[in-house]
Amino acid sequence: MEERLAFLRRLFDSAVEAADPMRSLARHLPPRPGGRVLVVGAGKASARMAEAVEASWGPCEGLVITRYGYARPCQGIDIVEAAHPVPDRAGLEATERMLRLLAGLGEDDFVLALISGGASSLLVAPIEGVSLAEKAAFNAALLDSGAPIAVMNALRKRLSRVKGGRLAAAAYPARMLSLLVSDVPGDDPALIGSGPTVGAEGAVDDPGHLLSVSKISLPARLQSAVVSSPPPLSADDPTLSRVENRIVAAPAQSLRAAADLARAAGCIVHLLGDDLEGEAREVAVTQATLARRMRSEMKPGDPPALLLSGGELTVTRRGTGVGGPNAEFCLALAIALEGDAGFEAIACDTDGVDGAADVAGATIDAGTLARARAAGLDPMTELMNNNAHTFFARAGGQVLTGPTLTNVNDFRAILISPDGM
């Protein structure tokens, strides 16, 4: 059983490795342009992306904002660390510096933007009349709402001077190439980091409707600011006419790497998709039902099966515990499988941060619930309290990676063995 959990961890590590910007970014870089070149960026993978750029181009001028603990040594690009997922003053001051760097560029200048998940919190430039404290409260409320990432990012754009294409507009008329590491279902560039270099295609959702959908409760003044805020720039805005957006790493390639490793080990792989969304505990029940059905159809001697999926699950905060969508998925999955032998699973965020905690996620096996109860824990009570990280810290199974320097969203794998041993 321990050996199978180690195998699942190897699959996760292979997924992370496939998304390492040091492996994926160089082939998307053009030759270094002549004239002035400025590198800017934000996100949990952005410092690693900057490191990869300088490995190809040599020292560059620029500024990149990443999460605390995610900095990398660069030769010329200034790396600033700030708070994620709730913004702080370090992010605010660094974003203002970035906007000053972009101001006054000419059409012969070139900007390379490096954007990854996490940029929504790290690029902080509230619209006039909204304070940093209000922006932080707004982000925290969104995170607790359980709203889909598309809704959260659409709302974030409303209170920002950099999201929704406005960072790119600040560099106009300079030419810009934006390289993106995708952490969103469907790999829509407008959603990655709330699209600081991407304009909106088609009609823009009404912010009042989005607030209703997300069921977010805000003070009246802040709600009014959201509803009356300017929409993001449209994709055909003239100030975005010199921008190219290009995805350099995405969840699909990481799942493929894990699938290839699993097949080489003799598993039958069933890929459920790289773009799953929904409430973590509900998706867990659905996948538990599927895993049980598949095992019931297996015969002795059949090869093990592997259910692989990615995407971004959410948690609606109901309790006061410490958790995240991947750990909550694993806790709900363990409860749904009721300690049956023949199942092991892992669910982790590829950035090493599940929710707001420095925990990647968790693993489960047939003994998870028994170990928890022996430690004095009631699994269902912990689930209802959104206390999955505490649960796995005490019951065993917590996955700690430290900074992975990339971010292609959730990784989930359920291993199904025919013999139940």
Describe this structure in words.
- The protein is α/β, with parallel strands linked by helices and 421 residues long.
- It has two domains: 178 residues, MOFRL domain (glycerate kinase, domain 1), CATH 3.40.1480; 228 residues, Glycerate kinase, MOFRL-like N-terminal domain (Rossmann fold).
- The chain is built from 16 helices and 13 strands.
- Strands 7, 8, 9, 10, 11, 12 and 13 form a seven-stranded mixed β-sheet that branches. It has a six-stranded parallel β-sheet with strand order 3-2-1-4-5-6.
- Helix 7 crosses helix 9, helix 13 crosses helix 16 and helix 14 crosses helix 16.
- It starts with a helix and ends in a 5-residue tail after the last strand.
- The mean pLDDT is 95.
